[in-house]
Amino acid sequence: MLISAKKILTAARAKRYAVPAFNVNNLEILKAVMSAAEKIRSPVIIQTSEGAIEYAGIEYLAAMIRVAAKGKIPVVMHLDHGKDLRYVKLALANGYNSIMIDGSALPYLKNVAITKKVVALAHPKGVSVEAEIGALAGIEDLISVKEKDAALTNPEEAVRFAKDTKCDSLAIAIGTSHGAYKFKGKTHLDIGRLKKIAKLVALPIVLHGASGVREDLKTMAEKYGAKLGEARGVMDQDIKAAIKNGVAKINIDTDLRLAFTAGMREALHDLPKVIDPRKLLEPSNILMREVAMRKMRLFGSAGKA
Known about the structure:
Elements: H1 5-15, E1 19-23, H2 27-40, E2 44-49, H3 50-56, H4 58-68, E3 75-82, H5 85-93, E4 98-101, H6 108-122, E5 128-133, H7 145-151, H8 155-165, E6 169-172, H9 191-200, E7 205-207, H10 215-223, H11 236-244, E8 247-252, H12 254-270, H13 277-299
Parallel strand pairs: 1-2, 1-8, 2-3, 3-4, 4-5, 5-6, 6-7, 7-8
Helix pairs in contact: 2-4, 2-13, 3-4, 8-9, 10-12, 12-13
């Protein structure tokens, strides 16, 4: 069933678990995620980026997600990283009930202005709005303390931004980054900064760029020809600490891509005579479902549907 993002994220923050938000681009990814959610009874956010919309078409994506949401599992249909108002309006027209407006690369006042525009468009329709403050960039060993501080979310600015925009959830930067190459050397999130933000901001807090980049999947993909080098993700212990301190929504994309790629490479190697795409995709589907279930257990959302 389609459910309000504001409702499930408020409950998640209050009870100290996080709702997983999975990026989907096609039917295989969506079915794997929903199969996982149904098996262990977890609420789930299904989100599509502007890139996914360009790839698959918003009408296809919206129709698939509506079908997936017909069961008893709480599902949110979310636009991820909307930077162009054209995509925001398109998502609203196609029944999305949660919108992210990403003005994080803009100066503060411009970020506030575009976020307020989206809130004005979305709230009358009962649609939740996620916004972002801070620059999403990984914390690397050689970056200076001053550079780290400038890149991450300022706690006082975060509370001001939440009040100025009236957004429903707030994505912050505490050391994560998008993609598989998040860090160099030892990796940790700035949990101390998160604690300060959570004390000031009552909204559900969102963590982007939080995939774990599992070593076993990386090894499997490389066994069958992938060249992933120093791919490294966020550690489980940091994810648990983030949830304990106010994070209620965690975005996952890279881990699903890695599972899909590892399974596909294995199938193409081991099944050279098979030309049925359904059979070739089965290892990917199994791995993605397993990854999704593992995230739900890690985030504490299993059994919360």
